[in-house]
Amino acid sequence: MSAGTAPRDFVEPAYHRRSLGDVVPAVASALGLADALRVESPTDLDLPTAPSYVVFLVDGLGAELLDRYAHAAPFLSGLAVGQRPATAGVPSTTATSLTSLGTGLTPGTHGLVGFTSRVPGTDRLLNHLFWDKRVDPVEWQPNPTAFSRLAAAGATVSVVNKREFRGSGLTTAAHRGATFVGADRVGERIAAVVAAARHTPSLTYVYDGDLDWTGHRYGVASSHWLQQLAMVDHEAEQLRESLPDQTRLLVVADHGMVDSPAHARVDVDEHPELRDGVALLGGEARFRHLYCSGGAVADVCATWTGFLGDRADVIVRDEAVARGWFGEAAPGMLPRIGDVVVAAHSDLGVFSSVDFGYETTLIGLHGSLTADEMLIPMLVC
């Protein structure tokens, strides 16, 4: 396969056209503040002009899932009629996506290139959701955020999220420059969003992570997930009804999800040859970063390719960058990407019971480039 092409069941990220990282630039244009961000304007995301915008991000709500289970979400699925999906970035995982949203940058530029990635020059992984106090999030993600640039241009920019996320490493890296409003319950969140959206011009970002948690725990084919989807649908409808008519609501997601059954799982610790030449295993089950010992890259790539066959794309870092998976890749960010990356097809999950025991308890997974993971709703009302 030549560089720049994708496998037939993979969806390439639509950076600078219609991706999650293009949301804030598009909102800035709709608010009349396009010049504030100094980033490339998206070519396929033209939002209606409005004095204020609310961006409601539902963690784990893939566009394919919304279409498949439309009966459980009549409000959102009704909005989806005639509105084309967008894409997440690569990997299709929360920390990467939330940082793309907040910065307006591609993963290769902002540097949060996975659930976990190597801290260059060390033998440690940084978990971008739980962070590490030894790593300064402003140094790790040094670019000014799109939120901060929009605020500097005179817009009121607010982040409404659970109180526990205030001042976290990920919040600082991805969303600094916005006013943080802590709100733990749905009603509290809606009230906070309505209050923030009264300001003009304004962008209010609100996050709901319960659907993603439910999918990880029970799977997207479960009654638990469908019930949670119905609750999210009601939340979105109530939010729309509570907002002023002139405020636009934009519902998006950070990624979708696939269920990985037992027969589709590989535990690298049961296959010692998969550890040969691998100094550090990172990423997550659907998108692994393999950090190799010196001189071992070619052998590691060959071993993993031979073992997984057509169940995954196993490629070296340079090819992943050439395909455009991470968008523009700043030289300083390249060492955070695995020497070899493993992107799963179908429902494969690549686990390590030794290094990532908790992951083995999950049913729903994400991170790779399949349509179920990459395509996200882009619903404006």
TrEMBL record:
Protein name in the entry: Alkaline phosphatase family protein
Taxon lineage: Bacteria, Bacillati, Actinomycetota, Actinomycetes, Propionibacteriales
InterPro entries linked to this entry: Alkaline_phosphatase_core_sf, Phosphodiest/P_Trfase
